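Notes to self after the Tuesday call (sharing in case useful).
The group wants a holo model before anyone commits to mutagenesis around the pocket. I volunteered. Ligand is flavin-adenine dinucleotide. Logging inputs and output together so the record is complete.
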Amino acid sequence: MTPELVEMLSSVVAPGHVLADADLKASYETDWTGRFKGSASAVLRPGDAQQVAEVLRVCNEAAVAVVAQGGNTGLVGGSIPRDSAVLLSLRRLDQLEAVDEISGQVTVGAGLTLARLQDHVRASGFDFGVDIAARDSATIGGMIATNAGGTRVLRYGHMRAQVVGIEAVLADGSLISRMSGLLKDNSGYDLAGLLVGSEGTLGVVTAARLRLVPLLTKRVTALLGLDDLGAALSVVARLRSELASLDSVEVFFEPGLELVREHMRLPAPFREPHGCYLLVECASRRNPLEELGSALSAAEEVQDSAVATDGPDRERLWAYREHHTAAINAAGVPHKLDISLPVERMTSFAERVEAEVTKTIPGSRVILFGHAADGNLHVNVLGPEADDERVADAVFRLVAEHDGSISAEHGIGVAKAPWLSLTRSEADIAAMRAIKRALDPKGILNPGVIFPTAPAVASQPGEASS
Ligand SMILES: Cc1cc2nc3c(=O)[nH]c(=O)nc-3n(C[C@H](O)[C@H](O)[C@H](O)COP(=O)(O)OP(=O)(O)OC[C@H]3O[C@@H](n4cnc5c(N)ncnc54)[C@H](O)[C@@H]3O)c2cc1C
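Result:
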């Protein structure tokens, strides 16, 4: 970037919010896992949507790439600047309006963290339908850009289902705003919907209007020990059909539990280890303990169970699941492959994935966990070098064989771009590219994210890599 351009951008966001010093930029240039590293020509920290618009206008004119970043908790490398792009940090856009109790909606800035949103709306008797363990850092803009899922998708849907309106800046600096909170508004294309899950490639989200859900204060959490994933999935089917209060059904296995216990110094949850664990939570206005107890007592597959109703005990059970990501990261730089499968094919996939990975890269450690009711498994692989793509190739081909998707909730980012054609057809990709070209003709927004620039490792002859 030329000194003139730096000066121009400094005059837009104020010099104190342009970081050019290597030490100051460092935390923006490496992702949460430590696997993706890049370099930004500058980090810009705009204070409002108008500044974002002016930055994009200037960068678009100069054809300079811009990478949007919120909390930098993304797990597919999409928030990391590449090839000296400008890093646009949205964290200062953290405004919070009063909850609109009549519509059950709230308007917030894109840089607001999920935890601050939760505190704010809970004080008004509402809750937010999406929850993820990265809540203290992940921002609403980043969660919209990745269409984040988390632990309550089975009840409330993912981020797309919570977004009523979006304010965003397009590549040329124009501002689009659909923030009136109308639930019914079929006037033309759903641009807000298009931006959800677009991973910073179509526009920069500056604010959002979000739908809220009732605050359910009576919660019961159960940790179940089962023989295997097959047994766990039959329990999931029973709970899904019997419990109106079902909020979360999370799954993990002994290798992940061992890592979490070691990392957090936690005792074993049960006297004997089990092949598979389910963490179940029910929430309601009335205590759901009896409802859950009666559904579980009829589930013969359950070998062991621990149930908690008060806050600290419930947190103790959740810790076994929620600390998986951190415990895996503490054990090495992981390959994180978040995938989804038809629920009935999860068992077959889980039975084969470790063998496929260790056949490809002997000595790798495979740790699975995920959101059982959504068919969403996080395949974590420790051992291979950070840039060894053979592991992703082996896992994604197995996913495709099982009619699954190579991204359930983390997005494609740069990590999965070479394999997009395993999940999307040539016609799909052509349509997506046409949208990208129309909204960002110079390709300045997050280049290299979603769309592949190089073929996947070990592409089969005749297979499109687009
Ligand atoms: C411990 C842990 C647990 C997690 N659990 C879950 C989980 O259960 N479910 C889940 O879905 N994810 C989970 N994640 C992944 C991550 O938290 C989500 O992807 C989250 O949505 C990212 O938000 P962020 O603000 O950190 O975005 P970033 O990491 O900063 O960015 C992510 C992507 O969004 C783009 N972006 C960011 N802000 C904007 C904006 N304002 N406008 C346009 N584009 C933007 C970036 O360019 C990038 O492509 C977890 C991560 C961690 C570390």
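Two things stood out.
The two ends are 30 Å apart (CA to CA).
The chain is about 35% helix and 20% strand.
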